[in-house]
Amino acid sequence: MTIAATLRVAVVAPPSLKAALMERLRQSALAEPIAETETAAANALVYMPDGPRPGRSADAFGTSLEHATELTRRGIERVIVVSSAAVYGATPYTPGFVNETWEAPPTHPNAVVEWWRAFERQATAAFAGATLTVLRPAAVLDGESYFSRLFRGAAAVTLTGYDPSIQLLAVDDLLAAIACALTKSAGGIFNVAPAGVIPLRTALRMASALRIPVPRLWQRAIRLALAPAGLAWAGDQVEFIRYSSTISGDRIDRELGFLPARTSAEALEAFLNRATEAREPRDEPAREFDRFGQDKAYIAAYGATLFTFLRKFYWRIETDGLEHVPATGRAVIAGPHRGFMPFDGVMLLHLVARGRGRYIRFLIHPSLVKFPFLFNFMTKLGGIPACRENADWTLQQDELAGVFPEGIHGAFTPYRDAYRLGKFGRDEFVRIALRNRAPIVPFAIVGSAEIFPILAKIRWAWWERWTEWPYFPITPTFPLAPIPLPSKWHVRFLEPIRVNDRYPPGAAEDPRVVREISGLVRQRIQAALDEMVARRRWIFFGSIFGHGSHG
């Protein structure tokens, strides 16, 4: 929807942005900024709060909101409220590139999130009589925000073991989004997201900022110290450099036709060049970063060292049927997960990368990104939070999506049942294959269950809250000496089940078809496991593939 009449716009915003916004509106043929002395003539309003800052409590938007509300009582009908993508939070459950309907889990309270949510609630109530558009921009490099201060300083305190992908929005792009919303929006909530992401460490290197990693426990102590002063949000800001909390700009592109001009890296470069006069302009070519943080150079480095050692000497992995993994195009790689640690997924990634030149993106449980170092390890290997949207995106890029159909409970299967498949959950792996017309390549592994053979498992409420694991496992080495045993592995990739040839995408909504395909996959994997286990003579030695190859 485009507004035909000229809008006379009153602006309530921080001084650092107000002048720039009014200048931007003057350049628009459909919007005219109104001086404070002439607000009675305004018929539209842009309201930007001065967000969380040092020394400011959670109700700091109160005074300016009262002023903005008074303006609406004078007949203003259109209101643009600039909120923040921080309303979505940053947690291990954040799937990445969230849309406007997503909400952070209530189990992860965060003062920054609550600040922005409270602001939106009050703004929505205050402007109930007007056509209201709420913009939720990614982190804006306006010179005053948390990320502005992070990149502007000579040193930056970060969290040890976390290198999330972040989105950075240029001020010019925020102002352009506001102007677009004024002239085209008929109300609603819109994310404003730059194209592309940038890893936090890379951004800090661009800023020539000394990175000072500080353990999270120390940072929590700082948060507790700040809480009595009403600044609990200051400690909670660090959660946004702990997890990747990215947003999708699809809706504003689709409905308003708006796309930011700068990528995250370009926005940072522009900010740095403005912030420091002595800074030399860079001639480096524009670099694109993986959407979810996968780093093929990182995979290659581990592949040439640790993964090769594990494959050749520690687990002595043999493979069969690797040719069934397609050399090109999309596919769902599905099979059992044992040993509760993610070593089987890691080695499958290595085997396929080495043997087929392809990289599996495994859909992983939130517990695998909750802890330092493990976060970096899993995300750089290509692990992505398990959800429908991420699986669909992976397949639509003609990539390989790795799925463990038994879910996290399969990883905690007692050793006596290690090679007996459990329930396949909701069969979502079949639905994503059908929906995206992708073949399913089942796999079976014999040997991974012995690296941490689970002798018993305990339900422990504290452990479940801390790790997000459903059980505390007891194995011969865990928890006393959590070193995986050097069992002999055999990995078999089975012939693809080409559901894309037999069924249309709509079959994903047919429970009968989904159950039938799931049952077929389960049957083939179980048959392969039974045959492989029957042929195995020793857990630590021997080969069961007569024509197999060392991975």
Write up what this structure looks like.
36% of the residues lie in helices and 16% in strands. By secondary structure, the chain is an alpha/beta fold. The chain has two domains: 7-149 and 167-194 and 244-275, Rossmann fold (3-Layer(aba) Sandwich), CATH 3.40.50.720; 329-545, Glycerol-3-phosphate (1)-acyltransferase. An eight-stranded mixed beta sheet has the order 16-15-17-14-18-21-13-22, with helices on both faces. It has a six-stranded parallel beta sheet with strand order 2-1-3-4-5-10, sandwiched between helices. Strand 4, helix 3 and strand 5 (131-137) form a beta-alpha-beta unit. The longest helix is centred in the C-terminal third of the chain and has 25 residues, at 511-535. The radius of gyration is 26 Å and the shape is elongated. The N and C termini lie far apart (58 Å). The model is unreliable at 276-283 (pLDDT under 50).
